[in-house]
Each structure stands twice: as structure tokens, then as C-alpha cells.
Amino acid sequence: MLCLGSYLGEPPLAAGVWWYHPEISVGISMKRTLLGGGTIILALLIGAGYIYRADLMLLGLIFVVPNHAFADVPSPTPPDYANPTHWAALPERDDLADSVVVGATDLQATAPVDVFFVHPTTFVSADAWNQSLDDTTTNETTDRMVMQGQASVFNACCRIYAPRYRQATLAAFFAEGDSGPQALDLAYSDVVAAFRYYLATFNHGRPFVLAGHSQGSRHLDLLLGEEIAGAAVAEQMVAAYPIGFELNGSNGIAICRTATETGCQVTWNSVGPRAGALFASPDNICVNPLTWSTDGARAPHEVNLGAVNFAGSDTHEPAAADAQCREGRLHVSEIRSDHYTLMPLGRDNFHIYDYALFYVNIRQNAQARVAAYLRERN
């Protein structure tokens, strides 16, 4: 059992350390604007106050586009999911998904349910459109930042299976042409292969939760539509948490509207009062992680059981954030903590904190949905 270390505190930017690379989903017109007039747009954004401090770093990384077409260079070797090193987390192995805060317990050894967790983007490179699984630096970032900071939320309810995959580099979400979509398609093909391997090898008919963040949730959205909706295996799905991506429900899975509904999905995109237009479609699903409702009512800070930022702390912070679903986004009026100041997607865009701000509530909700699912079937 591990105590959580540093996750989302201020990184040592002066030393050039990049911390975590969540991707952005934007319309094609904005892609053209960013890529076609980057210097001008960057200056305008700075002048308008949308970008400050560490935000400059991600804006720069947006322009880190491979100098070759996807089709011109062989793709990295496919993962072999019979190889344990091609999994970022496995329940029988000591890894960072076993991490807990003070007072919590890793219960994977006796959990009656599994979670299949798909990690977000942790790869930014001009050398390749997709990560090689031999890239130990990116793998270590995935483990330290995501397995510890996100996947661990499920270790009280579920055995955690988290595949490594040939994730698309950040630029795949912005670059014009076919290379970005092809890189994302390759990444998704690995996620499908991992899920099928999980079902055939590890699952043994057990109930499961699907969860992820950002690029991982993009892949889960497709997986839910193509592998789960309308299939017999849907009966085994407790719920899905494809958090931090623009989902509109077109994958065929019902939206969860109560804290114990099962067979459904929840997601949100967290923003503050001054957030820009990223993730701003009113068609997006928004389920409030403090009330587990879509009714638009504001949940006050007091019902937040605890944020976990892992910035050198092994405890949680109750009442750190409120939450209200409005126009497809989760609005946070105020973060009552000094541990959530890094905003690489722009002022008041809390994308990298989608799990962290509501960590204890998510943890308890996953347990509640599992218990409800098991009651329904007994």
C-alpha cells in the first residue's frame, strides 16, 4: 500500500519539467486558427488575459506537431497484453493505482468488481504520432500522475486493470489533415484489443466499471458504442465514468441521473467563472459529481467530501469546491484551496482537476454503484 505523493501541484517550470498533458477537443475552425496563425493568436490571447504563467507552456506544446505524415513512418510495435509490462495497473501487482490517502484502504484483493481504466494523454512529441510502449519516460509519467492521481480512486470498489496503449500525441487533436485522426484510430484499436483481452483473460464473468479521462474517455466513448451498447456484455457493466471529454450520449448508453443508478454513464468538464470556450458545447453530458444529478442545481462546497491534489500531501481537503451543471459544463464558483493553481488549458479551465477536485465523492460513488448493482442481481 502506498501513500500518494505529488500530483497536481505547481511543477518546476523553470527547469523545463512538463507535468501532465491533457488534450483539448476543439472545432475545426479553431484548429485552423491556432495552427495557421499561432504567433498572432498567442499574442491576442495573452493580451486578453486568457493565458498566463504555465498556460504558455501548453500553448507551445500545441504546436509540437510531428514533421512527417502518419502514413510515412511505421507505427510503433503493437502491445502484447499477455505481457504484464503492457499494463499500467494490474490488481495482483504492486503499482501506483494501489495508492491511498490517510484513512483509506486499498481493497482490490477482495473487490467483487473490476475497473477497466483508460488513461489520458501523457505523450507530447514531434518525433511520433503515437507513443511507443518502450518509452519509459512517458510510462513513468502515466504511472506517477494518472495511476496514482486518478485510477486509484477506484481501488476501494474494484480491481484495477489499466492498459498501456499507443496513445496519440497531443497534436493529433489539432493538426490538419489525416494524420491526427489516424493516430487516434490507432490508439483506439489498442484500447479495443486491451478490453477484449481483459474480457477473455481476466474477467471471468465479473461485473466491471469502465473509467478514464480525456483522451482515454474519447476512446471509451467509442468503446461504449461499439462494444457495449446492445451487447450481452452490457449486463456486466456497473457504470461508466468517461470523464473530461465532450460526450453527448450518442454512444447509446443511458446517462446516470441518480447516485446509485447502474448500467449508465457519467461525465463532466470542470470550469471556473472566467473559463474560455473549450469544452463549451451545451450538448455535452454533465453529471454533477457532488449530487450525481443532471438537474442543474448547485451543490455547495460543504457537500464536497474531499479534494486530493497529491502535492506532497497524503490527506484530502473537504469543501474544496462546489459544482453546478450549466450548459454542458461543470461550473465551480470558487476553489477553496491553494493547491489547484496550475491551469495549462487557460484561465479557470479545471480539466486537469476533473478527478482531483471531487476525488472522495467519486470514490464513494463508485462503491455505492457497485453495491447497488450487486443488490439488484442478488
Q: What does this protein structure show overall?
A:
A hairpin with a 2-residue loop joins strand 9 (324-326) and strand 10 (329-331). This protein has helices spanning 28-36, 38-48, 55-62, 136-149, 179-203, 215-228, 359-376; strands at residues 87-89, 113-118, 158-163, 208-213, 237-243, 254-255, 264-265, 270-271, 324-326, 329-331. The protein has 378 residues and is of the alpha/beta class. The strands form two sheets. It has a seven-stranded mixed β-sheet, with helices on both faces. Strands 8-10-9 form a three-stranded mixed β-sheet, with no helix packed on it. The protein has one domain (13-376).
Topology:
Elements: H1 28-36, H2 38-48, H3 55-62, E1 87-89, E2 113-118, H4 136-149, E3 158-163, H5 179-203, E4 208-213, H6 215-228, E5 237-243, E6 254-255, E7 264-265, E8 270-271, E9 324-326, E10 329-331, H7 359-376
Parallel strand pairs: 2-3, 2-4, 4-5, 5-7, 6-7, 8-10
Antiparallel strand pairs: 1-3, 9-10
Helix pairs in contact: 5-6
Low-confidence stretches: 1-57
Strand content: 5-15%
| Total beta-strand segments | 10
The overall number of domains is 1
Shape designation: globular
Order of helices and strands: HHHEEHEHEHEEEEEEH
Rg calculated over all Cα atoms = 19 Å
Distance N to C terminus: 32 Å
Largest sheet: 7 strands, mixed
Average the pLDDT over all residues and give the rounded result. 86
How are the strands of the biggest sheet laid out side by side? 1-3-2-4-5-7-6
Number of helices: 7
**Which structural class do the helices and strands define?**
alpha/beta
What is the percent of helical residues?
25-40%
